[in-house]
Amino acid sequence: MQPLYIIILGSLIASCCALLGCFLLLRKMTMLGDAIAHAVLPGIVISYIVSGERDHTAMLIGATVAGLLTTFSIEFLSKKIKLQQDAATGVMFTGFFAIGVILISLFANKIDLDQDCVLYGEIGYLGLYNDAFIPIEIWRMLIILGLIITFIVLGYRQLLMTTFDLAFASSVGIMGALWQYLLMGFVSLTTVASFESVGSILVVSFLIIPPAAAYLITHSLQRMLIYACLIGIIGAISGYYLAVFLDSAIAAAMSVACGVELILIFIYVKLWKERVLSKAVY
Amino acid sequence: MTYIDFLLQNIHHVYIGIILICTASAIVGCFTFLRKRALLGDTIAHASLPGVCIGFIISGTKHPVYITLGAFSTGLLSAYLVDYIVNKSKLKSDVALGIVLSIGFSVGILLLTSIQHSNNAAQSGLDGFIFGKVASLLQSDVMIMAGIAIAVIVITILFMKEFVLISFDPSFAKSIGLPYEKIEFLLTAITVLTIVIGIQTIGVVLMAALLITPSAIARFWTDRLSKMIFIAIVASIFCGIMGAYLSSQIPNLPTGPSIVMFLSIVALLSFVFSPNKGIVYKYLLKAKNNQKILEENILKTIYQLGEANKRFDAYFTKKDILEKKIFQNFQLNKGLKQLKNKGYLIQSDESWKLSKEGKIKGQRITRLHRLWEIYLTQFLHLSPDHVHDDAETIEHLITPEIEDKLTELLGYPKVDPHQMEIPYKD
């Protein structure tokens, strides 16, 4: 059963990240997603230390606060004190992540997190520690996926408008900042929920690669969302077998599999374009 | 040789290594910062991890030459891949950076865990590249790192003029016939080299901080490039030494993150307290400006009250003032008190009148307001009922020189569009 659980969990995380990643990509905020995925670490660790155990509610709150704080401080640095956006992102997320790693090292005896787990998680141990028929991680991810889908379905119009035409959105009374922070809140929430299982690498990869691949092959947002999910899920499945084959970290293999998909799609688009162009010439 | 001697020697060369790396990365970082490519450093750092693993797989040892070469080649490749993706597809640069970063790093972790599971005894410590491993640096590692760092510093000094040119004005650099591609390649190559030696100390995840943060700090203290590079180097070396020292004193405190923590603290302090650009300075400037506007508005209002009563030596109450113009009560109180202290107002019980200086100032603001209204109606052909709000803002900004020009341009008019007399200096 375990391979199946791992693949299911991987696919769920892939779908969550891919959906959110599409909006990040279209808003040119991809690197902000990367930054948040790193910066939630101190939030997670602090709530670990404060609550003294793996209290998931505390962790979710801690990480979401850290994620929103990162978004807010990057916005603040770039808008209010005019530090260029890329530098603001770089300064903030490395600072947050460093604090997280330091806390992990200092409180190593109190918390069962280590530096490796932060990066590539322990999806391989999924369900080994409890006897439930379906591991709790899967339920948790399923709930978050439900929340994200509800969020996108209910707020589709607002998300669409604030993404493509912020000026128009604000002129019809949609608050751009609110939707931005809601989106970032969901990114933080997904990051932390998938954190233990897959670590920060896979979250970042799933946030970036499937949406980028989907963006290459369609012009419609709805299709892009669906394609991104599919690409992420295929990556999760093939990545698992790649990891078994290479005897390596599962999360990293899933991410590499997504990368291979992206490369294939990239080549396909290039060839297809050339064919269309050569036809147009003759 | 006793253990203590060994330790001393070890610490000694670790510090030399850190100082050189901090210097090189601060210099190179200033250029990546100015070219708005701060996050490219992050991508290159992550993408050099697979190179580290490939170097190990090919050579079978952790000899720094192979590792450095491997990391350099994939690092350089990643920099060009980002450009390639941006040029050849519709993906924007932030996505390209993210793609190369995440795929590169994942391949690195894939190879790393694969090597670890292969039970090769030589591999232990390879994962030190992820978070850095300053304390276990050997003298031979430091020699190579120092050599590269010095080479980077020398190259930057030799090509300073060209690097500055392509950072600030690429099209001008091209137009005067500079070999743009070659210089850009050189700059990218030394950036990658710096990152490659940096990751051995600070780790791939946090290497970006060593490039970006010192230059971001320096940018807040100066507008000159030479000073910026100097400040970045000083800040970087200071934080490097402090971080390394602290981590040698506190057990379990990793060096890389500790250096980054110091850098972040210095950065935050700079953002808050630096002159001209810091938050505190900007806040004070804004508060001072608001104060000036408030005072000028009160003087103007009392002047206009006097004008309406045809008596400038009359006393007016707060109620009179508020009927003429809306102020928030606490602000009015504050403004009146300060104007009294500055000698612009004279108070008697709960009413105020203008002093001589106060009258001159109130008169001037009124004059500027009305002159601007005339200017807008005459030169921009706005209707008289649309010009008040604009004049309300501009009256606080016009300098005496502009005032003279404006008066001359309008030909010393007598009345404004609302038929109010323009009060000239007596």
Topology at a glance:
The complex is a heterodimer of chains A (282) and B (426).
Chain A: H1 2-26, H2 30-51, H3 56-79, H4 85-106, H5 115-120, H6 136-154, H7 156-164, H8 166-171, H9 176-217, H10 221-246, H11 250-281
Helix pairs in contact in A: 1-6, 1-9, 1-10, 2-3, 2-4, 2-9, 3-4, 3-9, 6-9, 9-10, 9-11, 10-11
Chain B: H1 3-34, H2 38-59, H3 64-88, H4 93-116, H5 128-131, H6 139-158, H7 160-168, H8 170-175, H9 180-202, H10 207-219, H11 225-249, H12 255-273, H13 279-309, E1 316-317, H14 318-324, H15 329-341, E2 345-348, E3 351-354, H16 356-379, H17 388-394, H18 400-410
Antiparallel strand pairs in B: 1-3, 2-3
Helix pairs in contact in B: 1-6, 1-9, 1-10, 1-11, 2-3, 2-4, 2-9, 2-10, 3-4, 3-9, 6-9, 9-10, 10-11, 10-12, 11-12, 13-15, 13-16, 16-17, 16-18
Number of helices of chain B: 18
Helix content of chain A: over 70%
Low-confidence stretches of chain B are none
> What's the CATH topology label of chain A?
ABC transporter involved in vitamin B12 uptake, BtuC
Oligomerization state: heterodimer
Give the distance, in angstroms, between the N- and C-terminal Cα atoms of chain B: 92 Å
Mean pLDDT of chain A: 84
Radius of gyration of chain A, in angstroms, nearest whole number = 19 Å
Please trace the helix and strand order of chain B, writing H or E for each element.
HHHHHHHHHHHHHEHHEEHHH
How many E strands of chain A?
A: 0
Strand order of the largest sheet of chain B: 1-3-2
